[in-house]
Amino acid sequence: VPAMIGAKMILTGQWKGQGVFNMEQFDPDPFMADLNQYGLPWKIVDLPLDGVPV
Fold this sequence. Notes:
Layout: H1 2-11, H2 28-37
């Protein structure tokens, strides 16, 4: 699924540039939205910081 989403982003022009890029160099928001759409759901969980050493 991640490879298909990356290919879709390139083909639709959401990810573009000259040369070689790592997928981490592109805007992650459309990629992460598509992960939910194509069956790899994710969510952000904020955890309390009480008692965590700094």
